[in-house]
Amino acid sequence: MILLKEARQRAENDARMHGYYLHPDPEFLRNLLEGLTRNEDRYGYPSCPCRLASGKFEFDRDILCPCEYRDADLEEFGFCYCALYVRKDVHEGKTSIVPIPERRPMKKQTRAYAKVVETSTEMQPHVPSTESEQPSNIEMKMWYCRQCGYMCFREDPPHVCPICKAKAEIFAEIIITTQVLTPIRRVKE
After folding, report:
1. Which residue has the higher pLDDT, 17 or 113?
2. Which fold has domain 4-126?
3. Number of CB atoms found within 10 A of residue 159's CB
């Protein structure tokens, strides 16, 4: 079981490392951290506390907290989708927190909803089984940041490079092709 103290420490370390702050309201912050710990206990990974997770890591990879949409939200609005991470001006009360648009593509949201509905008509969270799971049909690609050289293997390029903060448009897909060579047999004369 993940402790609230551990979740808070991870979030504080990440915020400090990226120059962000945690939500200034202690009660709201505690609710978000409780959601994170609940999701981590339920799924085995800390999915975003304000988004529906499928329970399948490969479907939810983009919403592991801090989610891949956080930096773009902070840059544009001053806080992330669930407002766990905020900029300094928001932390100091100079900018208000209001609902912001969801950046997660509908295709990815739909997969999470479909997985939950498939599991139960009562909308119970999906608990991964050991052997009965069918392989997913996610097409993973290799992406390369043309600015700093960061490489990752995922379905879509990151919205923001975790190293140099370049936008998704800077990423290029790496396509690898291989050629199988057949050995030449020499015939003895």
Report:
1. 17
2. Ferredoxin Thioredoxin Reductase (3.90.460)
3. 18
Of 115, 146, 118, give the one whose Cα is nearest residue 47. Answer: 115
Nearest to 135 by CA among 33, 59, 189: 59
Q: For residue 158, is the peptide bond before it cis, meaning its omega torsion is within 30 degrees of 0? A: no
How would CATH label the architecture of 139-175?
A: Single Sheet (2.20)
pLDDT of residue 113: 75
The radius of gyration of the chain's CA atoms, rounded to the nearest angstrom, is 21
In angstroms, the CA 144 to CA 159 distance is 13
pLDDT of residue 179: 67
Residue 105 neighbours by CB under 8 Å, 6+ apart: 156
With 0.70 as the threshold, say if the pTM is over it.
no
Q: Which residues of the chain does CATH 3.90.460.10 include?
A: 4-126
State the amino acid at position 143 in one-letter form. Answer: W
Helix (H), strand (E), coil (C) string for the chain: CCCHHHHHHHHHHHHHHHCCEECCCHHHHHHHHHHHHHHHHHHCCCECCCCCCCCCHHHHHHHECCCCCHHHHHHHHCECCCCCEECHHHHCCCCCCCCCCCCCCHHHHHHHHHHHHHHCCCCCCCCCCCCCCCCCCCCCEEEEECCCCCEEEECCCCCECCCCCCEHHHEEEECCCCCCCCCCCCCCC
